[in-house]
């Protein structure tokens, strides 16, 4: 897309917008599922998918995975049945670091470590570098989206607003969810870090946990709701889309003036 311009400046906003539009439409239409084409294990920026000039893979050797929380098997509960947890610091990085330089071999014993991801932190841990060494990743923020995994009842609507990092979800059920059988939602930590996420529900309580399963760390929200029509809204961290790590948004004139107390004539 854009004659590989994203590989030159790290700006994947065009790709992110296109992918987000497709996924948003699929969520709104209420389809049961869809296949995402494609995953190519040897994709790279220069040669793409190594076949017929195509470059469609969601994975590339020249990119790195989304950052995740380093602590599996831990849980963050909602403070009250209808409560939420909110943090005011929203300065976590927008994109992952450049590809690893570790040249050690990938074997079954080291596979899990090779697939591990860097930690999300509210503190800036990166150092400035050239675009060439921090190419970002392939618009992963647009396709790594929250989604119901197991529900008590029938899903009536679901959708993810990428620009505002807001997930909405509703269902209708004849019986209430229980401790043994809750409604469970995949909640990607890139958009919804546990210390910086607000949850609103119509009934019941909820918890957010990161579990080591399916070959990696999976963050999920478990919801123990009542019977009938129920809904939830989850708000995460809004980020500038398609931006490489270390390349922050430039402040506009108005924002600079507002922070420094100058007057507009």
UniProtKB/TrEMBL annotation:
InterPro entries with a match to the protein in the record: GH5_C, Glyco_hydro_b, Glycosphingolipid_Hydrolases
Pfam families found in the cross-reference section: Glyco_hydro_5_C
Domain of life: Eukaryota
Bias-annotated ranges (Polar residues): 81-103
GO biological process, one term: ergosteryl 3-beta-D-glucoside catabolic process
UniProt cross-references to Gene3D superfamilies, sorted A to Z: Golgi alpha-mannosidase II (2.60.40.1180)
Protein name: Glycoside hydrolase family 5 C-terminal domain-containing protein
Organism: Imshaugia aleurites
Lineage: Eukaryota, Fungi, Dikarya, Ascomycota, Pezizomycotina
């Amino acid at each position: 897309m854009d004659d590989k311009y994203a590989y030159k400046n790290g700006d994947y906003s065009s790709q992110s917008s296109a992918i987000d539009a497709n996924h948003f439409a699929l969520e709104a239409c209420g389809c049961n599922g869809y296949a995402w084409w494609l995953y190519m294990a040897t994709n790279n920026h220069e040669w793409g998918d190594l076949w017929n000039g195509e470059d469609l893979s969601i994975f590339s050797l020249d990119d790195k995975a989304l950052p995740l929380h380093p602590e599996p098997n831990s849980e963050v509960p909602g403070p009250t049945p209808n409560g939420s947890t909110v943090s005011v610091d929203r300065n976590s990085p927008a994109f992952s670091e450049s590809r690893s330089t570790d040249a050690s071999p990938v074997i079954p014993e080291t596979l899990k470590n090779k697939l591990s991801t860097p930690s999300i932190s509210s503190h800036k841990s990166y150092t400035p570098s050239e675009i060439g060494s921090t190419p970002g990743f392939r618009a992963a923020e647009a396709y790594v989206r929250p989604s119901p995994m197991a529900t008590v009842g029938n899903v009536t609507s679901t959708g993810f607003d990428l620009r505002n990092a807001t997930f909405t979800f509703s269902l209708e059920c004849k019986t209430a969810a229980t401790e043994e059988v809750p409604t469970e939602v995949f909640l990607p930590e890139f958009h919804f870090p546990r210390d910086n996420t607000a949850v609103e529900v119509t009934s019941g309580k909820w918890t957010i946990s990161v579990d080591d399963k399916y070959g990696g760390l999976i963050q999920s929200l478990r919801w123990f709701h009542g019977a009938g029509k129920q809904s939830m809204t989850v708000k995460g961290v809004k980020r500038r889309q398609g931006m490489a790590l270390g390349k922050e948004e430039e402040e506009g004139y108005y924002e600079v003036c507002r922070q420094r107390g100058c007057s507009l004539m």
